[in-house]
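Homework help board

Subject: predicted structure for assignment chain

Our instructor gave us this sequence and asked us to write out the predicted structure in token form, then describe one feature. I got the tokens but I'm not sure how to describe them. Can anyone check?
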Amino acid sequence: MRIDLHAHSTASDGTDTPAELVRNAAGAGLDVVALTDHDTVRGYGEALAALPAGLTLVTGAELSCRLDGVGVHMLAYLFDPEEPELARERELVRDDRTPRARTMIGKLQDLGVGVTWEQVARIAGDGSVGRPHIATALVELGVVPTVSDAFTPDWLADGGRAYAGKHELDPFEAVRLVKAAGGVTVLAHPAAVKRGRCVSESVIAELATAGLDGIEVDHMDHDAGTRTRMRGLAAGLGLLATGSSDYHGSRKTCRLGEYTTDPEIYGEITRRATGAFPVPGAGGRER
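My token output:
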């Protein structure tokens, strides 16, 4: 089985619609794909309606968290999307995205960059506006060559010249909320230092004690040495070690299935979940 547990659609900051995402996942030879848009479950219906035969969909989300000034991304799988406390927190994060984006655009304009809200809103379309949309605008304007190059201290990285904060969950609270909603939590790209500061291994150990289920080990932002170190950390803490592409369509260079999760690990995730269950495709409608 080929299992990719981290992918984004136009419901947040990917470039594939949810329907295109599941079709492309099947085309890439995946058996299982997780839809993990940022702080939203809005893409579920379309993805499920278009789910091809032979592909299983894991519903999820990537929750925006922060601890002591460090950004933390928490992958949440197979939780009940209607559970009110977690739904309320997702809504608070989404509602803060637009004013945050406007603040960052203002900071860029103060730096002499001709980006506008209208440009960013066009790029975001129906998705929840976020930094990748602003980064895409910087690429369009020729300010940076790639989206990844916008995530530096010069521009949009945490603490960067054009950075602005938003409402974010405490990661310990995120673990509690997801577990209360019957879901499973995996810390996304925990050692992706190229993105900015990361939480320490001691914090990961504390999260494990608090109920964290796993860490994303195999990821494009972890080099070989980091993957080895993270795999050893997961083993020492009794955490599941996952692998994922963090696919964003054409917005990033990663490909669906570039990194995958061991079927035994996937099986354990599904065994722990009680809020929702993987959905096998039966041949979805074309859109």
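Reply (TA_rk): Your tokens look well-formed. For the description, you could write something like this. The longest strand covers residues 56-67. That's the kind of observation they're looking for.
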